[in-house]
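FAQ: What does the model actually see?

It sees only this:
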Amino acid sequence: MKQIMTDRQIRIKALIKSIISYLDKHRADMSGVEMTLRKLEKIDLSDQQLVDINPKGTRHERVLNKAISEINAQQLNEIASCLYAAKDDLVWLEDNLQYYQPGANLGPGYKNCNLHTLLIGPNSCGYQSDDFLLGVFMLGPRTLYRDHKHDAPELYLNLSDKSGWRFELGEWKDYPAGSLVWNAPGERHAARVYEQPFISVFAWLENVNSPCEVLHFDDWEDIEQDLYKLGSE
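And it is asked to produce this:
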């Protein structure tokens, strides 16, 4: 007997499908996209496998709504529309250092406003997977996401108009909406958020239970002060 999906499940599946569709169009852009799609192809994404759990809202709803409303790039229209429709169906969680080693110093910006929802993964609101994550990640405005690394190979699909990224000990570079960022296992990376909140799709391909390690960089305080000044200009 064919399972009848709830409206909530239909919206969540549509969001996942829109993300996979975008990645498929950019399969050749970088090896990480191909690797992510191959992982997804091994997961049973049939209607029968969709979970049905209660949604969970967030104290950061205003920031989240702003982040979603500012997804303006034409190539992201389908993802933006599906995310807007499914926003209240999802389980939104804050990372209170669950993903980091004890005592990790992530800085005030991250602690004040971070948010994620899992569409695929352990205890997700879409499909269950023990060693793969697909979700949506948000940071509040004027935030430095301090340098860190992890064993999980990671793909970001940036939905916000502009975000800054630094890899290893390189220079900062701004990435536009629709851009893809690949972090190989153990690769050092950091991100900075400007006047508008940052929102992205993310995937962890394996080692999803391994902790992240914060890696000190001497310029954190200067960057955070510069970002703070953006709010007073």
